[in-house]
């Protein structure tokens, strides 16, 4: 990551930058990336099983199931969104773990989530275009 920053890119793409790091190092790395974002850099990353602290530090979240979008928005809105679809997270549960568990349950649930996202996106587009 440091080598890439030497070229002063405006956009930084990272594929699982926290893999192999202990939890403290992962949080530190995400904090540094967040500081870069606050200074105007666009940071895009794929990350698997983030801690709750890391999950909540994201500005925007795009969740995929079978390479299809099932959620796009602020991390703080994700659990409420899935609750409106009938999928309620247990109290005090890591949102990222809940979402991973939900998406990995079975194909029927993934299909429901993909279809719901398409319907919600269409509804939002109609709402904003009037």
From TrEMBL:
PANTHER family: ABC TRANSPORTER G FAMILY MEMBER 28, PROTEIN SCARLET. It is found in: Membrane. The keyword Lipid metabolism does not apply. It comes from Adineta steineri. This is ABC transporter family G domain-containing protein. One of its GO terms (cellular component) is membrane. InterPro entries: ABCG_dom (IPR043926), ABCG_transporters (IPR050352), P-loop_NTPase (IPR027417). It is a multi-pass membrane protein. One of its GO terms (molecular function) is ABC-type transporter activity. The keyword Membrane applies. Pfam families: ABC2_membrane_7 (PF19055). Residues 48-104 form the ABC transporter family G domain. Keywords: Membrane, Transmembrane, Transmembrane helix, Transport. It comes from the Eukaryota.
């Amino acid at each position: 990551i440091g080598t890439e920053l030497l070229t002063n890119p405006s956009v930084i793409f990272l594929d699982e930058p926290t893999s192999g790091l202990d939890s403290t190092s992962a949080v530190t790395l995400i904090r540094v990336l967040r500081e870069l974002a606050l200074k105007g850099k666009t940071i895009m990353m794929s990350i698997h099983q983030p801690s709750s602290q890391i999950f909540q530090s994201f500005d925007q979240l795009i969740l995929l199931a079978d390479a299809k979008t099932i959620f796009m928005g602020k991390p703080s809105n994700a659990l409420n969104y899935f609750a409106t679809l009938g999928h309620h997270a247990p109290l005090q549960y890591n949102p990222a773990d809940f979402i991973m568990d939900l998406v990995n349950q079975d194909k029927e649930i993934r299909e429901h989530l993909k279809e719901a996202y398409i319907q919600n996106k269409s509804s939002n587009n109609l709402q904003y275009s009037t």
